[in-house]
Every structure is written in C-alpha cells, then in structure tokens.
Amino acid sequence: MYTFKIMNLKIKFKSSLSFIFGLLLASTGVVLIALQNKPIGFLLLLCVCAVVLLLPRHTQKHWLLLLPPIAILGLVPINTAIDIPHMLVMGTTLILAVGIPYVVTKYIYRDNTIQFKWHHGRAWQKTEIGYIFVTAIIAYVVLPFYFACTGAYLNWTVEAGWYNLTKLFIGTNALGIWDELFFIATVLVLLKRHTPFWFANVIQAVLFTSFLFELGFTGWAPLIIYPFALLQGLIYKKTESLLYVITIHLTLDFVLYLALINAHHPSWLPIFITG
C-alpha cells in the first residue's frame, strides 16, 4: 500500500506504480496533445509504457489500451478545419481511438470493462433536467465573453451558406459525442478499474482538457473545461447514462455553435449579451 499526503490528507494507493502511471499519462496528454511537443511527448509516452509493463498483468492489460489512442491523438493534427479531407482523416483517427480499446476488451479480453451504458433505465429527474438548463445558461454567458476576450473564435472558420454552417454544426456535435465516448466511457472506465474513482477522474479530465486545448480552446479555456470534464465524469458515475452526459455536452455545443456564428458575424445572430 502506497501513501502520500496532500495538505495533511493521507491518500492510499495499492501500488505506487499506479500513481506514477496516472501522473505520467496526464503529463503526456499535456505535452504531446495540448502543447504538441512531440519529442518530449513521445518520450513521456515511452515512460508510461515502461511503467505499465511493471504493473500486474490484470492492470497492465487494460492500461496498455490507453497508449495507442494517446499516440494517435499526438500524431494526427487535431483542429477545427471542416474541409472534407480533414474531417475524414480526423474522423478516422477518433474512431480508432475509441474503437481499439473497445474491440480488444470485448473480443480479445472478453470482458465488459467498456460497455457504453446509454441509459440508466429510468426517467430523468427534475434536478437532472434542471442541470441541462443550467449548463445552457452558463454557456450562454461564458462562451461569447471567452471568445471576445481571447479571440479564440478565430480557430474556427464560419463561412456563409447552409452547406458550411451544416458542416460546422455536424463537426461540433460529432466531437462532443466523441469526447464523452472516449474520455468518459473509455479512459475513465479503464482507469477506475484499477485506481480510486477520484484519481481516475482527475486524470481523464486532464486528457479531456488537453484535447480541447489543441482543438482550439486556447487562452484561459482550461479553467472552465477542466471543471466541466470533472463534473461529466462524476455525473456518469452517478447516472451510468451516456445519453445524459452526451445531452449535457450537446446542449453546451449548441450554444457554442451559435456563439461561433455570433463571434464571426455579429449581425447574423445578435442574441448574446456578453460577446
């Protein structure tokens, strides 16, 4: 049993290697994906691999599955371009990132670690529905202000015409769905299989934030993305409903879509008060 302290609070792990693995994985996400420093990023990824190989086999077999997706995300340009060739390349990349761990666990390991639990089998509670509205309100206030302060909206292209606007809408929503399938239903699930939930959630949120930073949410966006990622992990733990966490994310993405249009073409959609 490994114990360390944060502000006199003792935290226990079954293995110090699990703790080291989590820190190295998070660091790799920041350096390789967010900062796009490939030499140091892939060196860190090799260190992660070395640590995994020292772990017990039952842990090793699940955590090795996290390495190919991280490597893929580090190699392929992740951005907001909506030309068809880029969307196909990026779409293939994201499908592989989710598909490899799922196929291996289901058909090679023959276990149900990754299940993609879509619904918890009950009607949504009033508080759950209320949270969706709260998410929309916060996004309505924060996103236009964020774009106006940072100019990060320039990382997206918003051109006139239904064809271009439709591609932008499909792209933002597809990425929102993928975020939940990968970071919540895959990364978080694989990590928490062998570490405390809080630690797994902290690490997945770092990776979640790193991906969105590279995507275009630069400036101070990580300050709002990281808490959102933590909450999504916690909500999935409590509800076991991908449908619900995806609905939350797509609600935010719909406001994001409108805010991007407003930021690029203020006269088209003058509905925001903070932009």
Describe the protein in words:
This protein is mainly alpha-helical and 275 residues long. 70% of the residues lie in helices and 4% in strands. Strands 1-2 form a two-stranded antiparallel sheet. The longest helix has 31 residues, at 162-192. The radius of gyration is 19 Å and the shape is globular. 35% of the residues are buried.
Q: What distinguishing features does this structure have?
A:
275 residues; mainly alpha; two-stranded antiparallel ribbon
Unreliable spans: none
Q: How many whole angstroms does the radius of gyration measure?
A: 19 Å
Class computed from helices, strands and strand pairing = mainly alpha
Please, how many helices?
Answer: 10
Strand count = 2
What's the arrangement of strands in the largest beta sheet? Answer: 1-2
Cα(first) to Cα(last) distance is: 51 Å
The H/E string reads EEHHHHHHHHHH
User: What is the arithmetic mean of pLDDT?
Assistant: 91
Task: Classify the helix fraction into a percent range.
Answer: over 70%
What's the arrangement of secondary structure elements?
Layout: E1 2-6, E2 9-13, H1 16-34, H2 38-54, H3 57-63, H4 67-75, H5 84-108, H6 126-150, H7 162-192, H8 197-215, H9 222-239, H10 242-264
Antiparallel strand pairs: 1-2
Helix pairs in contact: 1-2, 1-4, 1-8, 2-4, 4-5, 5-7, 6-10, 7-8, 7-10, 8-9
Summarize the structure.
Strands 1-2 form a two-stranded antiparallel ribbon. With 275 residues, it is mostly helical.
